[in-house]
Amino acid sequence: MIQKIDHLGIAVRSLEEAIPFYENALGLRCEGREEVASQRVKTAFFNVDGVHLELLEPTSADSPIAKFLSDKGEGIHHIAFRTSDIAGQLAQASGAGVRLINAEPFEGAAGKWVAFLHPKSTRGVLTEFCALKKGEAAH
Ligand code: ZN
To answer: Which domains does the chain have, with CATH numbers?
Structure first.
């Protein structure tokens, strides 16, 4: 079951250049940074009352974020829904005819398990499911 919007992923060319907007213009505080090697990105997180903004900077030219930036420029990259059962959520989406990018969840930033739905199946919105645990209910 979907529990909440967990985060919005925002593609940026440079964390160093993007973070000051969120800190100085919006008054948010960057609460952490992490490199996610599997996705070839560096991330910075902001907490907005439990919904996070996840800035994403590519670390290599073959990063999915590098492709997004060259196709579309900076902007909102994906929306992530927290679910208590990521495998069940993927099965439900697949059963509804949605094309999955990841049939199996993988370990993303902050130790969460994540999987993406294909934007061609979601009206153009890259959609992520994330869970605190791979196969069992999150608390
Ligand atoms: Zn995400």
So the answer is: 2-131 (3.10.180.10)
